[in-house]
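User: Predict the full complex structure for these chains.
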Amino acid sequence: MRATLIHGAGDIRVGEVPDPVIRRPTDALVRVLRSCICGSDLWPYGSKPRVEGGDRIGHEFLGVIEEVGSEVSGFARGDVVVAPFVWSDGTCDFCREGLQTSCRHGGSWGRDGVDGGQGEAVRVPQAQGTLVKLPVGEDTVLLPSLLTLSDVYPTGYHCAKTAGVNERTTVTVIGDGAVGLSAVLSAKLLGAERIILMGRHKDRTDLGREFGATDVVEERGDAAIERVRELTGGDGTHTVLECVGLEPALDTAFGVVRAGGTISRVGAPQYEKVAFGFPGFLRNITLTGGVAPARAYIEELLPAILDGKIEPGRVFDRTVKLDEVPDGYRAMADREALKVMIVP
Amino acid sequence: MRATLIHGAGDIRVGEVPDPVIRRPTDALVRVLRSCICGSDLWPYGSKPRVEGGDRIGHEFLGVIEEVGSEVSGFARGDVVVAPFVWSDGTCDFCREGLQTSCRHGGSWGRDGVDGGQGEAVRVPQAQGTLVKLPVGEDTVLLPSLLTLSDVYPTGYHCAKTAGVNERTTVTVIGDGAVGLSAVLSAKLLGAERIILMGRHKDRTDLGREFGATDVVEERGDAAIERVRELTGGDGTHTVLECVGLEPALDTAFGVVRAGGTISRVGAPQYEKVAFGFPGFLRNITLTGGVAPARAYIEELLPAILDGKIEPGRVFDRTVKLDEVPDGYRAMADREALKVMIVP
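Assistant: Here is the predicted structure of the two-chain assembly.
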């Protein structure tokens, strides 16, 4: 089959790889209907050392069950399923607690002999714990929104949820990327009435307003902090959803969080240390979040998508064929595209 | 009157200061029955630059009302009261939320014309919001335990509470000082069944065991981390109560916290940055805590002390007269004494 390979920074190619087959009784084979490119794929795209032969890439996909192993029940050939961005057994203590990202028998796509998501098909380990069956046909118009359940939407939701967003909390969302916009949508869903979105791409912040943002702050750094403080009587917001992962974004988060408030971060940290000493201690700030256990949230987030109440799939503003994936990466890296969907 | 003054690092003296008088209608005058020396007083004792004439010091005290301003109600001359370690109006939004340490009209003892706690008397600003009346006479044997309500016990409690300790969480307490032992007591009170105390002073860890610690780890650094992991099947504990404030203690906290777990810190951070990048993000660790709003917890913690069910005052292992305060500081700094009570 054909799949996406990363050979090093800036070098994405689509090539032939072995067809996946069932290797373990807990596996399933999924033919990919839709996959997509993640903001986090841009980190290796920006800096990965050269790899002979290329590494598989992609961790967001939905598709159709082609075959299941003998120990997988509840799934049949033809079922449409979505896969969260890590696979997990669904039975260990971490999975039962809703922290599938720390599953004792789980792992990542595209590593250790497991297929990446940006290809024609995927062997899914621990299929019964990992996959979620979607009550739709493979031709549904809901595919883009359902695909967001793989990563971007639950990641935004994890951010809002761990920050403790509710109807009484004001919210700042840092970042107008697909995760930031998903965080806006999630904050709105959790009842927040005041959602300040920080971003400077008008088409993105416009979508953010449609998703629920009440204010947009285009400034950066100290000017952005000042603006949010102006908007909040000098106090900042109870919760801050940091959806970027860079140190200046986190510094901004500390600048706009209200005393006693919570910063949640879901942008993979591109830093080692956090400026969180005495000043943040004196103000009782909490820093939480982390890599989102998407699997834990899919059932909860699914109904509103099926009902058409929300359309998280609007974060996709470009669709490419599998052969065009290299250009999809380029477009996202150049900020021409917000988030790119792939049709194999 | 006589009060404690700090003239610089290592230079504590007791000297004459002006008698406090009511200055504002919201003030009260309190004759001090008991005060004490805090671990955080040792920071200026260790490093404060020389100050001409000396600065007032001390922020934990209980005493007897001598006089109240015209706008203070609910308190009368002769009432025994405890003061939390910051004063606060009790009416602003932060106070109503239980974050009196961020009170919009509050402040610290020993600064800006407000008396320190380690003296014969104190003018208490915002007395009605700050003080809590204790239903005891000034000769009660409960004074030491009631005095802990000023700081050390609610600080330990804040640590356990913000960490989310309950009957289902395992706990590591880092630090066998008075705050650490108060955190053990608090974790036990909140239902924790497994409480691992890190400390190497046998008299202190013995008291920790009496307060509820089920295991004591004497090792430090990597050896301590390894030991806690051994004790917890390799996983670490759900909650970590960091009661030291030094960077190595926080590093240890990250080493012993279970994935998805929470570190709460109440030791005033003696560092500016925290090593909390990708690894902690990947494990969904939360860092919370901060300076404890003691005032928020006093009513909740009082009954068990009055009933004699708990004796947090056992952290005091030395009592000095006011004139002996300099030696009290020395004894705590030299770790001869765990916590020193002062009888003016």
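The interface with chain B takes residues 94, 97, 99, 101-102, 162, 259-260, 265, 268-269, 271-278, 280-291, 293 of chain A (CB under 8 Å).
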